[in-house]
């Protein structure tokens, strides 16, 4: 069976799409299927994308090459903020099982499977169409296989270690600003700072280090999980990492750095899974972070957040999606 995954990722838009599509790649691979992985990306993707059959090129422009690669596919997954509706329609017509990853009803999708694993997905009024199947909500969470089976984490009595993670590029240069705030108001905290492959502000970060700060360069998914396990709390962007933190059991303070994250982080906060400090440009952002760190010193409050997160977020979402699309593929029905 031929399967293709089409997505995008670079410094300007971040690498979150690649991360969540990697989880689908892993779930297909677990079933003995090695997908073609097609990325509109940059040199970082060429060097770090740990998949076979990978293609890195601008498939938005070079559509002839794209359709040459995907020709004959049984299943195609498309995860994009940039692709036009016309491309979705064209893909929907040439494959039996098209799968579209969505966050906020970006388009009026053509026939296929629409996946939105965000915790706020069911608040969105998706159109009811006979030729579209919807897989909605965090039971379809796209987390990497390193997070599919996580051992129970013991909560410490005090906050001693804090993780700081802003994706693969930290486009808004938040890491050094947050480090400065922590150095001033929480100088005794041990800080574990994730440096992504696309960071262009490493010099700024290194300039504000203190003796309690550890920089962790370009960690793998297993490395990310290790840091989460070792950290009492985290300050994070509002992407897929908040799902991984919830699965591990690390209470988090989230910052929305992209429009599509806002509903997500607000719902996480409403359900008591983490604290939402605000949009990255919010003038009260750092005051909110300080306030929430002080609040999280209460162990019982952290415990409630962990329980809520592990109640709502499921780690086997990729497997559920692959099970569904493979069953659909094996059936006689299609989305025509």
Automatic annotation (TrEMBL):
It comes from marine sediment metagenome. PANTHER family: GLYCOSYLTRANSFERASE, UDP-N-ACETYLGLUCOSAMINE--N-ACETYLMURAMYL-(PENTAPEPTIDE) PYROPHOSPHORYL-UNDECAPRENOL N-ACETYLGLUCOSAMINE TRANSFERASE 1. One of its GO terms (molecular function) is hexosyltransferase activity. Residues 162-311 form the Glycosyl transferase family 28 C-terminal domain. This is Glycosyl transferase family 28 C-terminal domain-containing protein. Pfam families: Glyco_tran_28_C. InterPro entries: Glyco_trans_28_C, PseG.
């Amino acid at each position: 069976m031929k399967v293709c995954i089409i997505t995008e990722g670079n410094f300007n838009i971040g690498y979150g799409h690649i991360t969540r599509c990697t989880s689908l790649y892993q779930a297909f691979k677990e079933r003995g299927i090695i997908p073609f992985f097609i990325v509109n990306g940059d040199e970082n993707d060429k060097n770090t994308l740990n998949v076979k059959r990978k293609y890195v090129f601008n498939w938005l422009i070079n559509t002839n090459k794209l359709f040459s690669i995907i020709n004959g596919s049984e299943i195609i997954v498309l995860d994009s903020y940039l692709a036009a509706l016309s491309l979705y329609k064209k893909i929907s017509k040439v494959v039996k099982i098209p799968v579209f990853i969505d966050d906020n009803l970006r388009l009026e999708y053509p026939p296929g499977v629409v996946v939105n694993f965000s915790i706020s997905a069911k608040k969105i009024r998706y159109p009811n169409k006979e030729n579209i199947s919807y897989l909605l909500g965090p039971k379809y969470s796209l987390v990497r296989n390193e997070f599919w089976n996580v051992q129970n984490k013991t909560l410490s009595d005090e906050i001693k270690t804090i993780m700081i993670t802003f994706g693969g590029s930290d486009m808004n240069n938040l890491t050094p600003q947050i480090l400065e705030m922590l150095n001033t108001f929480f100088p005794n905290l041990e800080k574990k700072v994730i440096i992504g492959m696309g960071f262009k502000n490493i010099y700024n970060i290194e300039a504000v280090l203190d003796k309690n700060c550890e920089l962790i360069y370009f960690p793998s998914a297993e490395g990310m999980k290790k840091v989460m396990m070792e950290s009492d709390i985290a300050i994070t962007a509002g992407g897929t990492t908040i799902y991984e933190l919830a699965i591990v059991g690390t209470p988090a303070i989230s910052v929305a750095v992209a429009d599509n994250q806002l509903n997500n982080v607000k719902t996480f906060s409403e359900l008591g899974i983490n604290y939402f400090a605000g949009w990255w440009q919010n003038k009260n952002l750092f005051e909110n972070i300080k306030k929430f760190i002080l609040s999280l010193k209460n162990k019982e409050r952290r415990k409630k957040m962990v329980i809520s997160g592990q109640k709502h977020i499921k780690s086997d979402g990729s497997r559920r999606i692959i099970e569904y699309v493979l069953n659909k593929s094996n059936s006689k029905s299609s989305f025509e």
